[in-house]
Amino acid sequence: MKNIAVVYKSNYGAARSYAIYIAKALGADLYDLRRIKEFDFSRYDTVVFGGGLYAGKVNGLHFLSSHALELAGKRLCVYTTGLSDPTIGANVERMEKTVKKALPSPIAEQTRVFCFRGGIDYDELSFSHSAMMAMLRQVISHKRPEKLSNDERTILDTYGKAVDFTDMTAANPLVAFVKGE
Ligand SMILES: Cc1cc2nc3c(=O)[nH]c(=O)nc-3n(C[C@H](O)[C@H](O)[C@H](O)COP(=O)(O)O)c2cc1C
Q1: Is residue 58 in contact with ligand 1, taking CB distance under 6 Å?
Q2: For a substitution probing ligand 1, which of 33, 54, 126, 149 has the most ligand atoms within 8 Å of its CB?
Q3: Which atom of ligand 1 lies nearest, measured to the CA of 120?
Q4: What average pLDDT does this structure show over 99-120?
Q5: How many domains does the chain have?
Q6: Containing domain of residue 98, as a range?
Q7: What's the predicted TM-score (pTM) here?
Q8: Residue 75 C-alpha to ligand 1 middle, in angstroms?
Q9: Does 177 or 106 have the greater pLDDT score?
């Protein structure tokens, strides 16, 4: 199935690991967005894009939003990787809304969104990401425990540690969807 492209943007490897898994399962071409100079959209009927969540936004999603014309009529999938737990329905709904809002109208309707779990290793974070997480922790640590959202609790529980919640089997529904199963 070489008419499928899997494109990813990954800072610390989670979106990349899922991209490798998905591309292998689909026999698709695999692209790191950072290495793309020119992309031949005409070669593909299906484009899967994956990126990590950073402050509620999908890293690299501009790859789709800035090529709406070239992507018109194609089957599109977006997957996100984040600390947020996708087994919680409200988290998935929120991420779906975020993705669809960031895409121009014709391609938003064509896009199916999948949410996977990533991880975090505080020893690996860039200076600015480290500072962002420290600020976030500062803000949420003042909240009363019963007022914390699930995501906020995860941030406090994992702060300063290395955690890896990636689970490649979570990508199987995306693979099945693209295969039309
Ligand atoms: C500065 C910063 C902001 C983040 N914001 C979110 C977020 O809004 N939602 C979420 O679920 N995860 C968030 N994360 C966790 C990342 O999405 C997670 O580490 C993911 O696995 C990153 O994927 P990547 O390594 O492929 O870039 C954040 C991490 C950092 C360092």
Answers
A1: no
A2: 54
A3: 19
A4: 96
A5: 2
A6: 4-118+165-179
A7: 0.98
A8: 26
A9: 177
